[in-house]
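Lecture notes, unit on protein representations.

Consider one protein chain, 330 amino acids long.
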Amino acid sequence: MVREIIYLIFISIFFLAGCRTETSIITDRNLAYLYNPSLTSLHPRYKVFHNNDETSTLYVKVYPVELLFNQANEEGVYRAELKVFYRLHELDDFRMMVDSGSYHYYINMQNVRKDFIAQIPIQAKRSRKYNLEVITHDVLRKKAVQAYIPVDKTSGFNAQNFKVFRHSTGSSVFNPILDSNLVIRLQFPNETVDSLYVHFYKNFPPLPLPPSYGIPTRSLGNNPDSIWYLRYSDTLPIRLTTKGVYHFKVKPDVGEGYTLFYFGEFFPSIKTPEQMIEPLKYILSANEMRGIRNRSNPKLVVDNFWINVAGNIDKARELIRIYYNRVFYA
């Protein structure tokens, strides 16, 4: 049985719930937007948290600025409609669907915030691995995006057993890539622990090397550059100020944990000529990259490169927009 829960978001929040048989969901089987998110107007974020041995929670964050609001409703207020469909399949047998559902949300513009987060319970059992298919649908715009999320309940210590919040507001943090201004709280709610063990990897390249280089990409291993521990508290403020990868664990002898990244003030945004140079390694040879890096004027180097490729300034601007958008979303 598939549940449909209708949330009405007004100044006061009214809750309506019901059950129904799921109707077929027709989706575009062309999934190119998964690799080029600029093709779609919706860019939801997802994360999963394991509540206990029987259930987990899917969190879906959408940005209301990406939704269509109109007044075509009885109250005549600006309102958006959001539907979230999900199907949970056994990882070893994708034909085996163990849970599914649809949730319908009405979002009034007068109450809208920077983001809207839906919380959806899913029936995921301990010691199993699943593939979670999620379809997020802007009803009024008639646009939907599809995502596939791994759900791993074989361990009680992996990333899906942690929660991350902004220290100042208590709002959930979905992106593991942080900037130095963000102070977070990292929580491990399902078990009593007294310490957080931090494995730090410095000089970790934020962009993987191109396959043409023939050099294996560095991965997290058993040799961090430094290790330290923090006295655990669910209100402990954490701020990352040194570039690198931070792997947090609650047990020193268990490899699994929650990984956070800090690669600089604006990453993954690209705002300076110096930052525009590094992604060129995916379309240039190693020798060409060495020549570009050694130039004294990064802005002139970038401008000349794209103008030479495009043939004129207008086409160069369009290529820059397309290429660096793909770098950002990658």
